[in-house]
Design goal:
Radius of gyration: 11 Å
Helix content: 25-40%
Oligomer: single chain
Shape: globular
Strand order of the largest sheet: 1-2
Number of domains: 1
Largest sheet: 2 strands, antiparallel
Structural class: mainly alpha
Order of helices and strands: HHEE
Number of helices: 2
Distance between the termini: 24 Å
Strand content: 5-15%
């Protein structure tokens, strides 16, 4: 339930802002340097245990919180 709420809120913010996206280079940097090394990252599910959202090194913004330029880390790492 928490994951559904978090995702819905993120999607609403992103859509309201005009769907801005981070560059693939920035997404790759955030994922490898910050998310992948964080103890809240679940490598099996490719999700953040803090917010429940999917975080990955690539893909479409609608399926990857890092790609949504309106979003940030619940631990303020990015």
């Amino acid at each position: 339930m928490r994951r559904a709420i978090s995702y819905t809120e993120a999607l609403a913010r992103w859509t309201a802002a005009g769907r801005p996206e981070r560059s693939n280079k920035e997404v790759d940097r955030i994922f490898h340097q910050l998310c992948k090394t964080c103890d809240w990252f679940d490598p099996d599910k490719q999700t953040c245990r803090g917010c429940g959202c999917r975080v990955a090194e690539g893909g479409y913004a609608i399926q990857n919180k890092i790609k949504m330029a309106t979003e940030n880390c619940p631990r303020d790492l990015w």
